[in-house]
Sequence to fold (544 residues):
Amino acid sequence: MVWCRRNWAATKMRITYKKCLGLLVISGFMLVALLNSWSPGGGSGVDLWPGRTIEMELVIREKIQDIFNDYNNISYHIKKDVACRLATNTCVCVADKETFRLPFSKLLFPRVKAHNLDMKFLQSHPDPEGVKRHRDQEYKSIQMRSSSPADMLIVNEANSPLQFPSQGVAVRPLNTIIIPGLGLIEEATSNHTVYLTSTLGTFDVAATVDKVSVKGEGKMHMSLSSASLSALNRQLQFLTYTNTVFHPRTADTVQFATEGHRSFFTIKIGHSAVPRLYNTGFPKENNISTFVTIVTKTFLRYGKLKDLIDSIRQYYPTITIVIADDNEQPQPVTGPHIEQFIMPFGKGWFAGRNLAVSQVTTKYVLWVDDDFLFNADTKLEKMVDILERTGLDLVGGAVRELTGWTSTFRHTISVETGGEDGDCIHIRRGYHHAIEGFPNCVVADAVINFFMGRTDKVQQVGFNPRLARRGHLEFFIDGLGSLHIGSCSDVIINHASKIKLPWSGTKSEKAYKRFRYSNSNDENHIHDEVFYFTNRFKCMTRHE
Fold:
């Protein structure tokens, strides 16, 4: 009887233990699901389509056009020596004519040659009109993506009584422009006078207007005066600025004043960015292989790498795969559309990323770890679609573990200005907002290590090669302010199982663990140095 009571009590304890354990497991899954779904972002979507003209921009453009049309009835006289320096947006390809031939004449009198690149390329192309249309489409796309409201010309009408452009005026180094939007609105007096002062350039007029006195032509200080306010304003419409100090990226602060009022505006000085277009072929030829290159880094895991390649080929048989390999005894990885690049032994994680990305010639690059596996949900076309149709530079997907759990690793990053000791960086789980028109996609500052990005933007940020064994968020911290990032949870890649019994595993797998998960003081010191010195942070806060 005693034995029966003890056995019943033990059975009851086991049942209670199992119930508690089950409740703990369920609670754990609910907690993880809650954390994964939690986000500081709003519920409504935000339109990220590039090149949308807002209503205010239309109003501003119409107003500026009205300003430019004022005083059209006042005559003027062109100054050819100044007007010829103005940009006409009609560049021509002209070579110097050969006047004489003498020994060493090319060294003493170098002659400018001209190459008509359009004629040379189009003459040998099977469809010249088609490639011209495709080139124009790509150029318009990059113009829309790179445009900013901060570059738009805005003219402040005379409240002071000076009228001047508050933004949007730019000149290329050592070139000449007409300064738009200058004007004077004041009550009638016997004489109207304005003064201009610059520090990096000179003023002149592209045409002269009768009854207007201009002093300081070709100088950094200029004055214009007239008894007729309309004539003076007409003359201001021809006022030019010539940059005289070469600098690839700066600005001149111009003072525009009368006897009783002063105003300031800036003229941006710099070369315009040269577009980098990718020839992805014509619509009938377009396929994912012309848009995307897959890159990965491998170390001591050739078996998993083979599985990754096999899974890619199941869905994308012709896509190029670039492999960075820093094994001590590298093995050749062969096959169609595979490029393997051997690195010094143990060179590291980010160095391998740099090498692999540097070899990409397609518009987009897809990063995958060498232990990932493609599946039916790994739809690269979705990633290309969102990058083509929005202003995003990079979009992450989701990684599914063997247990079925899927992670997107979405984070927001912000930097808070500090004092002399440095700034503070704050990293939080979550995202900023949803993307209108793309269900399951949001905007974040950091995503999981399965992402597709614009090749030139990823190369621009780059990967710190000092981070050899670990590092991921560091890339997104370096890209803060340069990369506009999204994340889509419906593009999913599988993660090969990491579950291994302690006594199992090959020699290579055990060696990999020693390298990958080493927690040496040197590694920790490098990470501390990168954050403290390279990024000038004094503090970091983040979710555990």
